[in-house]
Structure formats: structure tokens, C-alpha cells
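OP here, attaching both records as promised.
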Amino acid sequence: MQIKKQKSYKALQSLMAGRLLENEIDTACRQYAFDGRAVIYKTPESFRCISKKPSGRFTGQFMGKAQPDYQGTLKGGRSIVFEAKFTDKDRISQSVLTHTQSDMLAQHLASGAAVYVCCGIMDRYYMIPFNIWAAMKEIFGRCYLTQNDIAAYQVKRTMSAVMFLNYVHKKINSTK
């Protein structure tokens, strides 16, 4: 019973950390729109309502394949598409993306979009080009990344936003 409660608590912590990351990305999206740098939105989950209750609650069912977490347009007209993932561990596994998510990101990349995985590893945040993410086994020799592996892709974080287009290291161009 105690182990089950610990797992449930850990799952809730992970869910809340993921939501916090998305909220901080949403804040950055608003700032980028205000600055005229990009227009990017969180993609709503596709679902349908099965039944409504008088309390305002409802029972719903997810429909179809999930779309990438964020989609939009960078100044100049190029599309941007990315997934957001967070882990409180010291590494992030390639398997945090489902096959469907990877396939969809690969399709966008093949169509010319700027495609990334925006991830948080403990207290740092990264905007990893999807071609690097997809080839991590070939590049790094394993199917996970550590903070040292992706230090070049670290992005700035303010008190309320993960500024995913603002790389810490200036040699990275966020639109390529």
C-alpha cells in the first residue's frame, strides 16, 4: 500500500512539473508574440464529450492521434513545431516521445519546419533540434541525453518563462 501511494505521489509530481513547463512555455509564447518574433500556440488535445453531469464535470474520450504540443510561425514565415518534456532525473530518455509523436515531428521536419524537443532536465531547459534528438543513438551512443550532452542547446529561463528561442550559448541559431 505504501509503495502504491509513493508511485501515485511521484506520478502527480511529474504531471505538475510538466504542466509548469507548459505554463512557462506559454508565457514565453506571449512574450515572443508581443515582440513580433513568433506566433506560437499550445495545440489543444482533441477529445469529445461523452456525458455531462449537473456539477459541470463531464466524461470525455481522446480522439485520434495527438498533435505536437506547440505549433506556430517564426518571424519570416518558417513554421515551428515542438514537443515539451520534463524529467526530474539526471537524464531524459528518447522514449519519452511516443512513436506517433516522433513520426509527426519527422513529417514536419521533412516539410521544412523548424522542429524541436523542448525539455527540462532537473533545473535546466533545452531546445534540442529534432534531427539531433532522433539520431541520439548514433550521435551519443545511447538512447538518452544528459545535461552535459546537450549543453549547447540550453535556453534561458526567467522567473516565469522558459525562453525557448533564447539560447544561452550564442553560437546556436534557433531557426535552423
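Record two, same layout:
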Amino acid sequence: MNNTFDPFNHFGFLTHRVARLLDIRMQQRLKDLGYDFPSSCLGVLANLWYEDGVTQSHLGYTLDKNKSSINKMLEALVSYELIEKREDPQDKRNKLIYLTEKGKLFQASVEESSKDLRSEFINEYTEEELTTTKKVLKNFYLNLKNKISNDL
């Protein structure tokens, strides 16, 4: 059988594999720092470093995760005292998710690990190549998210 499919020329394959390998490496960095939670939890922290005090449903939407997945991620981060849940003064039924002081300080460790990963894997690319790559991926993500949201 002469199959012309080349997975290394397939956008979905490449983006998934790159993300997965970066995830594996970051998971090891987290363990080295003494944190044994999935690196996907960093998405929650990153959102909170950007905008602290949001609802669980907001995190689920922005991270493209279901309620069960977000619950597990939040439980892990609470257990390491990086976040806390507080009653929403606007709606007592809701909890707002906030960084703890430890969670705020943890940002520096994550940023340092990211810099290490960058120097380990990405330094061979020019700043222009990286800027273009990030721009294309961001636009692709936003367009895809918008299309999927409109289809629901």
C-alpha cells in the first residue's frame, strides 16, 4: 500500500506532539520543584496570574476543560496551597478562585522553568521565527475556538 500521508506534515499531529513533549518536560520540572500535580494545572495558574478571582466555569471555558477536569485541577492546586476558593459576594452559590501568596510567588519558579525549557529547546530559532509561530498558533486557536463556540 502506497500511503502518502505524512504525519510530520500534518498540523494537528505536529501541534499535539510538540505540546505533549513540552508537557512531559514541564511535568519533570514541577516534580523537581516538589510539586507532583499534572502540568495542565499550570493553565489554571496562568489564568489566575493574568486575572485573579474568577469562577470555576470561567476557568473551564478559557482552558477548554469540562467541570470534572477543572475540579480535579483545582483540588490539586488547593492541596499544594497555591489557590483558594472564596465565596462570591455577588452570588453566594458561586466560589471564586484566587491565588494564595504561595501561588503568586510560584509564578517566578514556573517562569524560570519556562526560560530553561526555552534555552534547552527553542534557542536555535530566531525571535522573528518564534514571534511568527506564536502569532499563527494564537490566531489558529482563536479562530478554532470561535468556530467551535458558534457551532455549539
